[in-house]
Design goal:
This protein has 321 residues and is of the alpha/beta class. The chain is built from ten helices and 13 strands. Helices cover 36% and strands 23% of the residues. The protein is globular. Bound molecules: N,N,N-trimethyl-histidine (AVJ). N,N,N-trimethyl-histidine binds at residues 49, 57, 161-163, 165-166, 206, 213, 280, 282.
């Protein structure tokens, strides 16, 4: 008889990297999904981005959380389970956890397993009464909640950082529908959404003077070299980032500085001089346009909080009980 393996809460490592690289680099124009930025080095680079003077979203969102944590807490009943999607660092959840009533569990879900497990240990030390149950998973895929979170009378979702801005609007709708299914009747969802603002502010935030965003973008090629036998020469690609006004999004690209051939994932890819790999979109919304999107996915707008300059928003939604 074959013994049944016991699987802990860790979900299988997302294995689609090779397939997604092959598919994306064979497309015209070439593209790579931004979720692959976040290997251990990429997650650290992103943490450095959040501290840059030009990168306003993290500071704005933190200030909204500090200022309105108590109002946000009013939407979450005692004994609820808090599910954080794409948590990365849990410094935002800490502010909520300090304001919330006692919870059944806190479930940080992130694609970078090393990061959330380390963070979970630190959180346990600071909130000894809290059940912290990290799940390593891609939040766009279906994943199972740990039993204590399933057993809680109600669940609240937290999707900070405007990570939702990485999705195409139709993918954002699909994510919100999936979140509704995972969280269930009576759920609350709190989403961090970056707002449309003057183009100079946006441009600076994604073209920082210290070059950390460029390093973050180029790290994707480093990761392909390391994990998929790639031969990308990092000094022959350049970080390009600009605001696309028609589509309300920042686009990040990696531009080939010359005509060249690169091997990766067992295939050879030709680059023209100036040809780019489109590595990220970061959509910007108005409070109204995001509210409409969420309504289309079955969520009822409950409250919105913004910072003084209206650069960033936290938007709360409810699912009918
Ligand atoms: C983590 C997706 C919210 O779009 O601002 C930061 C990622 N990319 N600088 C964003 C990012 C370049 C970030 N999100």
């Amino acid at each position: 008889m074959v013994a049944l393996a016991w699987f802990p809460l860790r979900q299988p490592e997302p294995s689609g990297f090779e397939a997604d690289v092959l598919e994306g680099l064979n497309e015209t124009p070439k593209r790579l999904p931004p979720k692959y930025f976040y290997d251990a080095a990429g997650s650290q680079l992103f943490e450095r981005i959040t501290a840059l003077p030009e990168y306003y979203p993290t500071r704005c969102e933190m200030s909204i959380l500090r200022e309105h944590g108590c109002d946000i807490a009013k939407l979450v009943p005692q004994g609820a389970a808090l599910i954080e999607f794409g948590s990365g660092s849990n410094k935002k959840a800490r502010i909520l956890l300090s304001a919330f009533p006692p919870l059944a569990a806190y479930v940080p879900v992130d694609i970078c397993g090393e990061m959330i497990e380390q963070e979970a240990r630190e959180l346990c030390a600071d909130f000894p009464a809290l059940k912290v149950l990290p799940v390593t998973a891609d939040v766009t895929q279906n994943f199972a909640l740990p039993l204590p979170a399933q057993a809680a009378p109600v669940r609240a979702g937290f999707f900070p950082g405007s990570t939702i801005g990485n999705f195409e609007p139709h993918e954002a709708t699909a994510f919100l529908r999936n979140a509704a299914r995972i969280l269930g009747a009576g759920a609350t969802l709190i989403v961090g959404v970056d707002l449309i603002k003057p183009v100079e502010v946006l441009h600076a935030a994604y073209n920082d003077a210290a070059g950390v965003t460029a390093e973050f973008n180029l790290n994707l090629l480093k990761r392909i070299n390391r994990e998929l036998g790639g031969t990308f020469k990092l000094d022959s690609f350049e970080h390009h980032s600009f605001y696309n006004r028609e589509r309300h999004r920042i686009e990040m690209h990696l531009a080939s500085l010359k005509r060249q051939k690169v091997r990766a994932a067992g295939a050879i890819f030709d680059f023209r001089a100036g040809e780019t790999i489109h590595t990220e979109n970061s959509y910007k919304y108005s409070v109204e346009s995001f509210g409409a999107l969420a309504r289309g996915a079955g969520w009822q707008p409950a409250a919105t909080w913004t910072d003084a300059r209206r650069y960033f928003s936290l938007q709360a939604f409810k699912l009918a009980g």
